[in-house]
Specification:
heterodimer, A: alpha/beta, D-Maltodextrin-Binding Protein, domain 2, 2 domains, five-stranded mixed sheet, four-stranded mixed sheet, 13 strands, globular, B: two-stranded antiparallel ribbon
Chain lengths: ~425, ~325
Amino acid sequence: MGTSRNVERRTILKAAGATAATLGLAATTGCGGGDGTSADGTVTIRYAWWGGEPRTIAIKKTIALFEKKYPKIKIKPEFTDYEAFWEKFQTQASGGNPPDVFQNAVGFLRKYDKRGVLMDLKAQADAGNLSLENFRNGVLANGQVDGKQIGIPVGANTMSLVIDLKAFKNAGVEAKFGWTWDEYFAALQKIQDKLKIAGDTGYFSIMYLYDLYLRQNGKAFFTDSDLGFTEDDVTQWWTDGYKRVKSGLVADPKKIEQVKPKSGLSAGLAASEFTWDNFSIRYQGEGESDYGLAPIPTTDGKDTGQYLGSLMLSAFSGTKHPKEVAQFIDFMVHDPEVGKIMGYDRGILSTTEQYDAFKPTDPNNKGVSAYEDEVAKAGVLGKITPHPSGADVIEAAFLRIGGEVAQGKTKPADAAKALFSEAKAAFAG
Amino acid sequence: MTLVKEAPARPAKKRSAAPVAGRRGRRRENLAGYLFMSPWIAGFLLLTAGPMIASLYYAFTSYNLFTPPRWVGLDNFTTMFQDPRWQKSVEVTLKYVVVATPLKLLLALGVALLLAQKRRGQALYRAAFYMPSLIGASVSVGFVWRALFSDDAVVDRTQKIFGLDVGGWIGNPDYVLYSLVALSIWQFGAPMVIFLAGLKQVPQELYEAAEMDGAGPLRRFWNITLPMISPVLFFNVLLESIHAFQVFGSAYVVSDTRCGPADATLVYTCYLYQKGFKEAQMGFASAMAWTLVIAVALVTAVLFWSQKKWVHYEEAAK
C-alpha cells in the first residue's frame, strides 16, 4: 500500500509538472507572432468579409493573386454571413483585436469612426501606398466622414426593384421608367387578379426603400444625428403596408418567414421584391422563373430617390502594418485582374481600371450593368445622405417592427412609437 | 460500505499518532490535489467568478464595450421594467416554462413507468427513448425542427389531414413557441432516467401489501409510487424549470437567429443576447442577466419551501 501510494504521488507530481510545462508552452506560442511579423520579415494581415459562397471563392482567388505579387505579405482570411460578421467584429474591435482589413458598409462608418476603430487612409494615400484616383461617379465620397477617408469603395450599388419577368409578362403588365407608386400597385393588383400570387414580398420593412420614398418627398431616413421623418410619416407608411398585406397584394408574412433564407420572390410567393441590385444575381440561382431589374416607382413621375451606395474596404486604426494594409487595399480596388475575378458581386466595380477590365458576359451581370447605366443616364442619382452612429441597429429594428405590423401584432401607430424610442437608444449608444 | 464508513474517522486518529510526518504528508497530498484542480480553479476564477462579478458592476453602468462604463445607478433596471420588449420576453419565457416543464415531466414519468416494468428488450427501449436527449440540444436539430414545422412540411400536412390548417408554425407568431415546447418535450430522456432510478428504489413489499389490501393500479400509483418518488420528482421539477428559464439555442436556431416572427420566440436569454451582442448595450444586458438570476433563485426558493408540503423523504418517515 505504502509504495504504491508513493508511486502515485510521484506520477501525480510529474503529470502536474508536465501540464504546467504544456500550459507555459501554449502561452508562449500564443504570444509569438502577435504582431504578425515572422523572422524572415514576412508580414501577416487579417482580412475579413461577409457574403455568400461565390464571393468567398472569388475573394480567395484575389488573395492568391496578391500574395503572388507581394510574397512578403500573407493574408489570413476570415469570413461569415452578414449578421454574424458584425457581431463578431464588434466583439473583436472592443477587445482591440479587429481584423487589419475588412469589408465595410455605409451604415457602420460613423459608428466605428466614433469608436476610433477606423484608420484614416488619407495619410497612406499621401505616402504613396494607396491611390485615391480613378474612382467612378464620385463613389469615393461614400467612404468619407468628416473629411476623413475611412472606407475605400470596391463597388457601387443602388436599391432596385427585382421582378419575376414571367409573372409580369403573363399578367400583361410592364415596369416603366418613371412609373408612380399608384401605377406600381395597380400592376401588382393585376398580377394578383390574374395569377393569384402576391405582388410584393414586404416592401414596407426595408429601411433603404423607405429612405428612397422619403428622398422622393424631400426628406431622408437619417439626418446627421437623428431620424429625418416623423412618427406620423412612418405610421402612414406602415398603415398602407398593412392594408396591402390584408388585401393580399403583399405576400403573407408567415409564408415569407418560413422560406428564409430563400427570398419570397424566388420562392414564387410574390412577383417583385426591392433589394440592392448586386443581390439580384442570387435570384436566378434560387428560383425557377426569370428575374430582371426594374425601375423604382416614383412619387412625381421622375425622381426615384436613388443614389449609389458602396461596399468598401476599411482598415483598423491600430494595425501594426499600415503600409501593407494600404498596399493590399490599393491592389484590391485597382488591379484589373481582381476586377475580372470579382465581377459585380459587390456592385459595379468602383475604379475605371477594374470597370474597364471586366466585361460582363452573363445576363445577370449584364443586367446589373445596364441597370446602373440606365439609372445614371436618367439623371436621377442623388447624393448619399448621412448614416449616423446607430444606423445598423435602427435598420434591424425597422425590419423587425415592420414585420410585427405585417403580422398584425402591432398597430402602425404603436410601431412608429416603438421605432422612435429604440432609435433614441441606438443614437445614444 | 465499510470502507466509506471508516474513512472519515481515520485522519483524526492519525493526527495524534504521527504528528510531524503526517502533517507534511498531508500537505504534499494537498499540494498535488490543488495542482490537479488548478486548471478548474483557474477556469472558475477567470471564466466564471470574475466575469460574474464584473457583470454585477456593469449592471449599474452604461457600457457599449468601447467607451469605459459609466455609472448610472438603477437606470438600467428602471428602463428595463418599462421596456415593452423586455416585458414581452418575460411573457414568452414564462409561457414557455409553464407549458414545457410540466408536459416534459409528465411524459418522462409516463415513459419511465412503462420502462420500469420488466420485459424483453428493456435496455433497447431505454436507449431509444433517451436518444433524442443526446442530440436534441444541437443546432442541426434546430434546423430539422424548422423544416418539420414549416409551411407545407410534415407537421403541416399531417394537420391538414385532420382539417387543422394553420399554414406552418414557424412563420406564425401564435404557434411558433409551441414548436419550441415540442422540441423541449421531445428531450425528456434526462428526467426519465432519473424517474426510472427513483422507481427502482420503491420497495416492492409496499405494492404487495397494498395489493393484498385490494388497492388498484391507480390507487397504488397515487398512494405509493408518487409519495415514494416525490424527492426525485422535486429534483426534476427544480432542474427542468431552471433549464427552461435559460432556453436559448432552440429559439435562436428555429427562428433563424431573430427570435421572431414578431418577437414570438423572444425568450429572455435571446433578448439579453440581442441587447448585449447586437446592440452592444452591455450594461442593460448585465442588468437583465442579474434579474434572471434573482428570478430563478426566487423560483427555486419557492420550490424548496413548498417541498415541506409534498415531498416525502424516507428518513423522515422512519
